[in-house]
Each structure stands twice: as C-alpha cells, then as structure tokens.
Amino acid sequence: MTVTAGRKLGALVGVGLAGLLPGVTLGSGSEAFISYMVAFIAVGLLTQVVYIGPSALVPGLPLLAFAAAGVVQDSLIWWLLSWVGLAGGFELRVDGFLAIVLAGLITRVAILGVSLLLGRPAAEED
Q1: Of the candidates 57, 56, 49, 51, which has an alpha carbon nearest to the alpha carbon of residue 70?
Q2: N or C end of the chain, less CB within 10 A?
Q3: Is 26 part of a structural domain of the chain?
Q4: Distance of alpha carbon 117 from its chain centroid, rounded?
Q5: Model confidence pLDDT, tens digit, residues 40-74
Q6: Are 99 and 26 in contact (CB under 8 A)?
Q7: What are the start-end ranges of the H helices in the chain?
Q8: How many structural domains does the chain have?
C-alpha cells in the first residue's frame, strides 16, 4: 500500500472517530452518510494537497513540530467543514473551539497511526 493510500485510510478512520465526539454532528440516517462523505472527501483531499509531514526519518523534536502543524491543519479543516455544513444546509456541525481542536487532533493521530501501522513501502533494489 502506498503512503498516500495510508493517509487516505487514516483520514477515513479519523473522520469516523471524530464523528463520535459530543460536539461533532454528522446528521442521522442518509444525512449522516452524506455528511460523513463530505467530511472524508474534504479531509482526504486537503491533507493530500497540503501535505504536512517529513519526507524522510527525522528526530523527535522536528517530528513534534510536524505533528503540531498537522493538528492545526486538521482543526482548520474541521472549522471549514462546520461552515460548509451551515452554508450547505445539511447536518454537519462542529460546535465550539474545543470540539474543532479535538476533532483535528483525533484526525491527525489516526492519519499518523495508520501510516505508521502500514509502514512505508520498501525501496526497490536494482
């Protein structure tokens, strides 16, 4: 599995877990499926377009800086999603600053966790 596929799978897991937070509402019934897909597409696309992360192994402190920047990025995506939900008229709401930050943190941890579990593809030897 490629690194980008691991990030997409992590985004899918992260959106699902963040949807369980008390301040995050993804709707009910078929509305929940639409809200979940909008959230997954937004998180998946924006984390692919604006990739925040090292391209090689880095020591702990720079890795923490990348992780913090990723949490900020994902929190801004959830903030955007709460605005899109209101403007689009469907049930996708994130209530409050704490819920936005926690949803961003859960999403980033899921992306990093799935990426680490799947590992990097081995380099091909000639």
Answers
A1: 51
A2: C
A3: yes
A4: 16
A5: 888 888 888 887 766 666 777 887 888 888 899 99
A6: no
A7: 3-18, 30-49, 60-88, 97-118
A8: 1
